[in-house]
Write a structure and sequence with these properties.
alpha+beta, five-stranded antiparallel sheet, five-stranded mixed sheet, 242 residues
Length: 242
């Protein structure tokens, strides 16, 4: 019984040790970034940076590169200067040579456009892709020869900001009538962006004008009351002197 228990403990320790070794291999590599890869970008913004993958495990046979950036002008998305290798494809698989423990790649691309403009005679529809988050500057994954992941993928993500959307949302906060706010948002979402903005601007201006006029009217009223009281006070004083 004791011998069996001892064998069980030995096997368990071996498994833990083996798992420790594998986890060490899996977490050994790391990606260093030179350049700015912002978390929030705008449409068609050009992004560039240098990625250095260090301490590549000996068990890795391939590196999978993925990005949501688009090709910009005549420049490649991936440029492996040390390997004299380039690629214009957003998805690229690079074989790892034996003994190669570091890879450097220049990443350059353009943020995708999520605004779509369609013209129907005199009507212009502007539609925005509802997906504005979850895009990736890069996704890097190491695998063995059979495609099994050596470690979890290293990913740097970004969100796409559309100033026109943010500006319209700010306008809606200035409209007190909830019905109009919901109605205008629906118009905006359906592509009637220009029309929704015009109505919103009108309602905001009307609100500001009515607000200002109320103060002007109140001020005139106070002035009128003060004038009347002043006249009456003056007249009563003259009567007492007589």
């Amino acid at each position: 019984m004791r011998a069996g228990h001892k064998a069980y403990v030995t096997t368990l320790c071996f498994l833990f040790f083996f798992q420790f070794i594998l986890s060490g291999l899996a977490s050994a590599s790391q990606v260093q970034v030179e350049g700015e890869l912002p978390a929030e970008v705008e449409e068609k913004q050009v992004i560039s940076g240098v990625l250095t993958i260090n301490s590549i495990p000996a068990a890795a046979d391939y590196i999978y590169f993925d990005t949501d950036l688009m090709k910009y002008d005549d420049q490649p998305i991936y440029n492996f200067t040390d390997l004299d290798l380039q690629s214009n494809e957003s998805h690229f698989v690079l074989p790892i040579e034996e003994g190669q423990n570091k890879i450097v790649v220049q990443l350059k691309g353009q943020v995708p456009e999520i605004t779509e403009v369609k013209q129907y005679e005199k009507l212009t529809l502007v539609k925005y892709n509802p997906k504005r988050t979850g895009y990736a500057h890069y996704r890097i994954r190491l695998t063995d020869e059979e495609g099994n992941s050596i470690k979890e993928s290293d990913t740097r993500t970004f969100s796409i900001s559309v100033p026109e959307i943010e500006a319209f949302r700010q306008k809606l906060t200035l409209i007190d009538d909830s019905f109009f706010a919901v109605y205008l948002q629906d118009m905006f979402d359906r592509g009637l962006v220009t029309e929704a903005n015009k109505i919103a601007d009108y309602l905001i201006k009307k609100k500001e004008n009515s607000f200002n006029w109320s103060y002007v009217i109140a001020g005139l009223g106070i002035a009128a009351v003060s004038f009347i009281l002043g006249v009456r006070t003056g007249n009563s004083g003259e009567e007492e002197e007589e």
